[in-house]
Amino acid sequence: MAIRRTPLESWFLKKAADAGGAEPLTRTLIESYQLQKLKETLALARAASPFYRRHLENFPAEQLRSLKDLQAFPFTTAGDISKNPLLFLCVSQDQINRVVTINSSGTTGRPKRVFFTGGDQELIRDFFRYGMSTLVEPGDTVLVLLPGGRPGSVGALLAEALERSQVRCILHGFVRDPRETLQIMAGQKVDSLVGVPTQVLALARYEAPGKKSFPVRLKNMLLTTDHVPRAIVNEIERTWYCRVYNHYGMTEMGLGGGVECEARDGCHLREADLYFEIVDPATGEAVPEGEEGEVVFTTLTRQGMPLIRYRTGDIARFVPGTCSCGSLLKRIAPVRDRIGGRVPLAGGGFISMSVLDEALFAVKGVIDFQAAVSSAGGADLLTVKVQAAVWAGEEVNDLVREALLSVPVIAGNIAKGALILGPVDVERSQKIRAPAKRIIQDLRGKE
């Protein structure tokens, strides 16, 4: 069956037509539109944002004659937002409809606050509507396992977007009782699901392999809010015979940044609302197409709190070439790491959650885990606590240990005597934890 072109292409053409553009879609049209929107955003920020008035004092919008010229402009960081987010506002606080507070996982503990106007939220609904049309069609039922109790929350915005496409949406919230959620999936004949990777994995592994008490008939699934390990995708597709799609985004982007098409070879980026760059984390210089670096974005259409060259801390790469769906919209490969999430090891190299995810979630019965690095007599000590399904056998301890030893950087450090792998602590439980930032705790120097 032929792969359908990403629906984000027709969405871009609609937005470009509103801005005076025309079909057909070409990279020239995309970049012309983006340059126009960049100039408008820079002019707005310099005129209305106290932070950018000072930050861009020597960088007028007229200096931007090509997209490449943006590389000379200064970056915006998470620390800038944390210090005084109100200085970023380009509208009065009366025009702000939604404020999202993001708690830091760093050492400062200072949260970020991101502001959205009603118009900014409408941009999110519009993107969600088109992005989800790869997975759903009118008449489908979608179960959303994201918070949606408050107006403007991610679940509420997604539900409103789906309803515009005549899709029935069940706004469930995070999973608390897996049995109850599985009963809803079966009883309500859910066609598609949107959820957090580890929570959905816990649903998929609620019953032992081969046991099917819940007649779930999923067609498609979108995993979001966290890194999506290939090991989790494989398990979900093996359990429910559905297609799993990846989404890239963060609150600062306006929740959505990109979504996979049917080819599932990178997320097509939200190029009508965001301009993306990949830069060397150390130098800030652009990296060659296809090479990994830090993801940087600039908002193109946001009015309340525009962000210019915002450093995300995500390590990823653009996927070179044209997608097999035929679209010219840029694609980004799955985020491999977070700059702040890498933990260096005494014997060289580093470990990250993404590396541990691929190793441990491939072990039958593993639902979640926590990892920490501490000091032990001049060497590093890696300890791992695993949550496994209640049906998981005694062999899970040995399998987890084998999986950890299969990670080259772990095996290499152990061989050098620079790393000790502590006993694996396994807890068998079907309890699903509330989603939180998943990081490796570095306890060295804190014991």
Automatic annotation (TrEMBL):
SUPFAM superfamilies in the cross-refs: Acetyl-CoA synthetase-like (SSF56801)
Entry superkingdom: Bacteria
Positions of the AMP-dependent synthetase/ligase domain: 101-297
Pfam families in the record: AMP-binding (PF00501)
Protein name as annotated: Coenzyme F390 synthetase
